[in-house]
Amino acid sequence: MNLKKNRTENSFSRRYRLHEILIALINQQKNLELMGDDPRIFNKPVDQSEQYDSSKIIERNQRIIKKYQSLVRSAIALDALLESEQHDI
């Protein structure tokens, strides 16, 4: 029973640490974009009848997702380094 409790506490501790590292990495970003579906930010149509290019929205959102994935992978790597440092001591 204690073993299960310790695993739960360790899991929560690691999740919290990952969250804190990720927030710190996000705070270091100067121009971190958020995903959106508003096409007006991509094209300034001459008149309202002009169609928007949805592929630009998809490409932009994919680029943003890749940036966030990179930040998450970096947080996981930093957490693993911190974990290994704690076990070395």
Keywords:
70% helix, 2 helices, mainly alpha
Describe the structure.
This protein is mainly alpha-helical. It has one domain. Helices cover 70% and strands 0% of the residues. α1 crosses α2.
Helix percent reads 55-70%
Query: What is the number of strand segments?
Result: 0
Assess the beta-strand content as a share of residues: under 5%
Mean pLDDT: 81
How many structural domains in the coordinates? Answer: 1
- SSE string, helices as H and strands as E: HH
Q: Give the N-to-C terminal Cα separation.
A: 28 Å
Radius of gyration: 20 Å
Tell me the major beta sheet: none
The oligomeric state is single chain
What structural category arises from helix and sheet content? mainly alpha
Number of helices: 2
Concise synopsis of the structure shown:
This protein is an all-alpha fold and 89 residues long. It has two helices and no strands. Helix 1 (2-28) crosses helix 2.
Please render the helix and strand layout as text.
Layout: H1 2-28, H2 54-88
Helix pairs in contact: 1-2
